[in-house]
Specification:
There is one protein chain. The chain is mainly beta and 80 residues long. It has one helix at 33-38; strands spanning 3-5, 18-20, 26-29, 44-46, 51-55, 68-70, 75-77. The longest helix is centred in the middle third of the chain and has 6 residues, at 33-38. The protein starts with a strand and ends with a strand.
Length: 80
C-alpha cells in the first residue's frame, strides 16, 4: 500500500471526482484543509483504514459536490 502523508498539492487536481485511498494503513499525518477549499468537484473521498491523525478539517464541510466521505478507522477528531 501507500505510505507517507497526504500531499497538499493534490488540491490542484481541480477535476478530480473520486479519491479512494482506503485500507492502506501506511498513510499518516493530517488531512490537508486545502483539499476542502479546492477539490470542489470531488464526489467521493475515502480515507478510511489509515493512520491519519489530528482534527478533521472543517473545510471538508464546504465541498458542495461531496456525497461520500469515509474517515473511519483513523485517529481523527472533530466533526465536519
Amino acid at each position: 500500500g501507500l505510505e507517507g502523508t497526504l500531499p497538499v498539492e493534490w488540491s490542484r487536481l481541480a477535476n478530480l471526482r473520486t479519491l479512494r485511498l482506503d485500507d492502506n494503513g501506511g498513510l499518516s499525518g493530517t488531512v490537508p484543509k486545502q483539499w476542502g477549499l479546492d477539490l470542489n468537484r470531488l464526489v467521493e473521498l475515502d480515507l478510511s483504514r489509515n493512520a491519519l491523525v489530528g482534527s478533521v478539517p472543517t473545510e471538508l464541510g464546504s465541498m458542495a459536490s461531496l456525497e461520500v466521505l469515509r474517515l473511519a478507522h483513523n485517529r481523527l477528531t472533530g466533526t465536519v
